[in-house]
Design a protein that fits this description.
By secondary structure, the chain is an alpha+beta fold. The protein is built from 13 helices and 15 strands. β9 and β10 form a beta hairpin.
Length: 429
Amino acid sequence: MTESRRTLRVAALTRVEGEGALHVELRNGVPERVELNIYEPPRFFEAFLRGRSYTEPPDLTARICGICPVAYQVSACNAIEDACGATLDPELTALRRLLYCGEWIHSHALHIYMLHAPDFLGAPDIISVARDHREAVERGLALKKAGNRLMELVGGRSIHPINLRLGGFYSVPSRADMRAMGEVLRVALDDALATVAWVAGFDFPDLEIEHELLALTGDRYAIEDGVIARSAGPTFDVARFSDHVRETQVPHSTALHATLDGRRHLTGPLARYSLNHRQLSPLAREAATAAGLGPQCRNPFRSIVVRAVEVVYAVEEALRIIDDYQVPGRPFVDVESRPAVGHGVSEAPRGLLYHRYEIDEAGLVKAAVIVPPTSQNQAAIEDDLVRVVMADGGLDDAALTAMCERTIRNYDPCISCATHFLTVRVTRR
């Protein structure tokens, strides 16, 4: 029998954030090696946080990502406030959740319309989509703008907000500003519902993930805090995160890979939705049902629908907070340092984001650990790619490459804030 070998090389994958490569080796159509290679230079955030004041991590870690800076700010605040024994006033906690809603809206709208939808419409980019679907693209831009405007109102600016601090905010919005924001969001809610209906009409490849799911849960659909839920075990407190989730270095990537009790797992929209479906608002659940989603969703290609449902929820939740808003009696509570270890989590648009800080007697950061969602999802992405290649290995090189790219974009991986993500190399033996 003659062995067959093929090699595919793609110079760059667009419509994701970051730099990396995918290496696939096939022998007689069977994948022997599938590696997601992340080759971005290390940025050493955990290292240069050491020796800094305990007040600095929220602003410094926000610079890790221009797409989801609020996630880094909130997880950092949660961890340091935990270490220092601080408790926020309920009104300030609500404002923090409101700011986070803005980030969910703008990030999900960006991914749905600009990055992911072209895959389902047979288009190479959003410019091509706009030629045939102008109304949809304008709706997506309006949604993103609403999210950015909300971040600017509460956070001080839409990119790398500057108003968030330990214990709350430097300043808080007026009721008049909140009312004006509410009018914008009422229009955005119609756009969000139309988005769900639009993406529900796409054709989705068949793929069911087998990974364990990991997400926050709480009294409400988890966004800014919570305890950690999993699909194959009991919930556990954030302080036990490192007991279950471990990072390891793999030879083919500069990024660490994380496992849950030694096995691959998935965090992000599919995990949040499947573990917290009952906590969605009635309108969001109704939209999900109309879009063909059940109480769980394990098809990563349908993640675009789940993100759209989460936009509906985030807009509704923002409106609820705004309608109930009363100007807080104080913009922040004092957070005094003490020698301790603190743990913090929040739900970034792409999944659970964990921070751990050790504070010394002088109020300086002695050690820092940051575990982002993408590192947790890399093993799951590689497994999905194996199964996609197994199912579609008979496709020609161009078609197989396109399917691999689509599979990766399901997860909206945020490697860094560049426009290129990966080079695809497939070797067939």
